[in-house]
Amino acid sequence: MKVKKFSKKPENFKERSGTKPIICYPNNNLEDGNLKILQNARKFLKKIDEITIPPRDAKTFNVKSGNFFRIESVEGPQVGDLNLFQANNFDEKFYSGKTRALYGTHISVGDKMFSSFPYLRSLATITWDTLDWYDYDEDGGSVHDVIGTRCDPYTSKLISGTDYHYCCHSNLIRALVKEKGMKINDAEKIVHDVLNVFMLTGFTNDSKQYFMKSSPARPGDYLEFFAETDLLGVLSACPGGDCGSEHSSDVAKCYPLKVTIWDVDKKYLDGVNFSKISNYTKNHGLD
User: Fold this and answer.
1) Order of strands, edge to edge, in the sheet holding 46-53?
2) Number of separate domains in the chain
3) What's the CA gap between 114 and 93, in Å, rounded?
4) Is residue 4 part of a domain?
């Protein structure tokens, strides 16, 4: 935190500061014309599967390329931590840092969930968000963040000195071990920074620390995605519940989440440009 200043301000500080901000990664070229087609196609969706995520636990789910999926609030305000993998290659997984660099701290309709290097393609596009009305509040808070890493037992131990086994990190690991037959060490290596679905977060104005508030999600709210490749999803129902008080404990009231998978007649997807793995040469200047 840059709240303690030990260095002396130079005499020419005015000419060294206050310059105009430049967007690091302009995202105009990422607009591929898909959204208009997808928002028409979603009018014809047919539900083909659903999975219930118990409180303080996680489940896996599969989505075929060209299908849609939703994460839904069903009983009460509840935050969900989402991991996404390319279903046939777990090395290709959601890259929250690059998604954040491209779209900002919170994502919504039209934004894409990019995958890790060396693949860097859109795994899924957000096609509907019943909470997009929230926008950004007076504290700079908004929903669906890509800044929080996921609650985990290691940070909990560091701060509180206690062991807690139902943080989202652990929940995601258990789901991969129990449902995909992975060894615990292998599962922990691939669990990654999440999309915090429904979570209301931001950075404080003074110390710029990560904060959370009670989620505005209510039963019936959902975040909807279009799968641009075959996906394995893993979703944890956070032990923080609506994250309005604390997490990494059993204190908060928690509710289940629901994942629904939706199919659509492929004629409605005519013209959609599915993302492709990066065609960078990968020689890294070593030729």
Assistant:
1) 46-53, 257-263, 68-73, 222-227, 122-129, 112-114
2) 1
3) 8
4) no
What gap in Å lies between CA 31 and CA 111, rounded to an integer?
A: 9
Torsion of CA 123, 48, 187, 175, to 10 degrees: 140
Instruction: Tell me if 1 is assigned to some domain.
Output: no
The answer to whether residue 284 sits within a structural domain is: no
Say if residues 229 and 86 touch (Cβ distance below 8 Å): yes
Does residue 59 sit in helix, strand or coil? strand
Could you read off the pLDDT of 140-156 as tens digits, one per residue?
999 999 999 999 999 99
State the DSSP code for 20.
P
Question: What is the reported pLDDT for 5?
Answer: 79
Question: What does pLDDT average to in each consecutive run of 10 residues of the chain (287 residues)?
Answer: 82 91 93 94 98 98 98 98 98 98 98 98 98 97 97 96 97 98 98 98 95 98 98 98 95 97 98 97 95
Domain that holds residue 236: 53-269
Strand partners, 233: 61, 84
Please check whether residue 172 lies inside any domain of the structure: yes
Token pair listed for 243? 């994250």
